[in-house]
Automatic annotation (TrEMBL):
It is found in: Cell membrane. Belongs to the MscL family. It comes from Thermus composti. InterPro entries: Mechanosensitive_channel_CS, MS_channel, MSC/AndL, MscL_channel. This is Large-conductance mechanosensitive channel.
Length: 124
């Protein structure tokens, strides 16, 4: 039983997943700080304080929901424009720098079938 547990923990994908979760948490802190400390004050400077938490519709705290939606939109935009787009550009450059590999040579059976097809076309 313990050996199976040890084997489970030592599989590569479990370790990769653990590293991804830890890095994701750290990256989330960086993105949240970017939004809270950089982007939100910039938005506030342009259009006033972006806080809707006081808006209520009866007992429903609608303003908090609006704040959460705006926070999500700003976080998504920050991740897209500051992380995804630059990474795509880097990947395109790296793919362009690599020389395209020649297509693999077909197996002997395929070569033989092509020769037979050519002979049949000549006879037709």
């Amino acid at each position: 039983m313990w050996q199976g547990f040890k084997n489970f923990l030592m599989r590569g994908n479990v370790v990769d997943l653990a590293v991804a979760v830890i890095l994701g948490g750290a990256f989330g802190q960086v993105v949240n700080s970017l939004v809270a400390d950089v982007l939100t004050p910039l938005i506030g400077a342009l259009g006033g304080v972006p806080d809707f938490s006081a808006v209520k519709l009866g007992p429903i705290a609608l303003g908090k929901f609006v704040n959460a939606l705006l926070n999500f939109a700003v976080v998504a935009a920050a991740i897209y424009f500051l992380v995804v787009t630059p990474m795509q550009a880097v990947q395109r450059r790296l793919k362009g720098a690599e020389a395209p590999s020649p297509p693999p040579e077909p197996p002997e059976e395929v070569k033989l079938l092509r020769e037979i097809l050519e002979e049949l076309r000549k006879k037709a």
